[in-house]
Amino acid sequence: MPLTELCFNQALHVRHGAVLGVSEIIIGLSGHSVVNRNEALDKAFRTLSLKERNLIKEETDSQKTFKVKYAEISTKN
């Protein structure tokens, strides 16, 4: 059964998985895959000054809180 047909499946988990799969294919075909995105970010990062790079690398309290909450939530079903 084609992936696009599974987007209309009655089972929620099948439907959501199919939609996610189709979206990843579309993103990849558009040239915005993770590899391309990382290359663009690396290129942009090299244009920053050392001070700007250090500011980006600094982990703020908000980032730490987010990571903890995300780890908690992502492990729940």
Number of strands: 0
Number of helices: 5
Distance between the termini: 28 Å
Range of helix content: over 70%
Instruction: Write the element-wise H/E pattern from the N-terminal end onward.
Output: HHHHH
Structure description:
It is a single chain. With 77 residues, the chain is mainly alpha-helical. The chain has one domain (3-74). Helices cover 74% and strands 0% of the residues. The chain is built from five helices and no strands. The chain has helices spanning 3-6, 12-29, 34-46, 50-57, 61-74.
SSE arrangement:
Blueprint: H1 3-6, H2 12-29, H3 34-46, H4 50-57, H5 61-74
Question: What's the short story on this structure?
Answer:
The protein contains five helices and no strands. It is mainly alpha-helical and 77 residues long. The protein has one domain.
Key terms:
77 residues, mainly alpha, 5 helices, flat
